[in-house]
Amino acid sequence: MKVLSCLTSLIVLCLAGSAHAGSFCRQEKIDRLDQLSSIRIDDVWSGVRAQPGAATVGSSLMIAYYNKDRYVSIASVDPRSGVVCSRSFGFRFEGWDAHNNLRMAVGEDGSVHVAGGSHGSPIFYAVSKTGRLDDFREGYMLGKGEDEQEATYPTFLKATDKSLLVMYRIGHSGEGVWVTNRWDNGKWFRMAPAYGDTNGHHSVSAYPSTIVTDSQGVSHVAIVWRETPDVATNYQVDYAQTRDFVHWSGYFAKGNAGPVMPGQADIVDKPGLKQGLVNSAQLVLGRNGEPVIFYTKYNEAGKNAVFAARPGEGEWVHKEIAADTVRSPVQGGGTMVGLVSMNVVASTGKDPVITITFPSGARTKLVVGPDLSTSKPPAMPNAAQLVKTTAEPRIEPPKGMPAAISMAIPVRQEGFDGPVMGRLIWYAQQPNRDHPRPCTSEAPLACNPPPSPMKWVFPESLVSGQ
Known about the structure:
5-stranded antiparallel β-sheet, mainly beta
């Protein structure tokens, strides 16, 4: 009873604002689900699937999200007690641009960073140098934030020495340079630009894949280049690598100081304009540690197809590995739906496995070997032989919202890296080319959707320490 009394006193202090200055705390029920538990975090904006940023600090969850009124909020969730404390900031999301994700990162010094909410617009940035909710301060990363006014895709990553970096694009689609900042001694410092904004003749912008760093400290990236805001003007896939995010080379091409320009490193494939190339290339490391790139474009029959590429004898070799039976046009601006979806999983010493969903609804799963040959994954054991566990819960959207789906994303320990510490679940509408959705008789909730509860689903081992 004494423990319960202490917990109750703590909650009262939180509600009074003493535990977290400027925050509101409440007690939430912990739902037990066999080997999983879940806690409701808050009601969140469901107009479009803009993603929250999340990480774990100790055993607690820290999450940045848009609350039901679309303001950026940051919450701290204790999985042992069920206490949820949250703070709201003055940055308000317009509500419909699916690019406006929030990202979170935990630095080596214990600092916690939040960046995002931008698409060619002012970036939201806040930092807690202590990792405490009440210590978050909103502001600029550098100076007076001159180059943070037209920012897009802030992305956190680690340097070879484990220090925290953030990369983002300055400018707009078709004309933007990517810059890199480094967190050192409690401050951000500007490094050399990463990806350039011209091909020598006219403006371009880079769409880089997630950077993958190998065991030797080499960071690998695939880049799709675009000429204008229209996705139809994606025209080339490049590969580049770096050890210090200042000097870049190809697998074959010699190194140069950044920024990387089109064709300066390695050209993987150059289909040209209006050839269905989508800016969603993915790079993984193959069985032997070599980079393997997956991307989608039209094939010779004019259908949407997925290609894989790897380094060959002095040049990149690419091969079609799967194709749709129909052609879905790749053109226009804004966040698009109905394109080819790829999910690639790679494990050290094993061949990558790719799951492909085509616009027609066709779906396939393939293992891709070192020579780009494909095979079906081995069959799973008979279901009766598997240990039965409780399935993760879903939050289903209400009727009256068009193209609304149940969302689920992993929570990684450091926000962008580290082991998975559960998942966030909620519901949200699919993008509408980043424009507001109208309310109709068939979809009366589309323009003013009800907020979705967001929950953290986590393994019991996180609390027990097992």
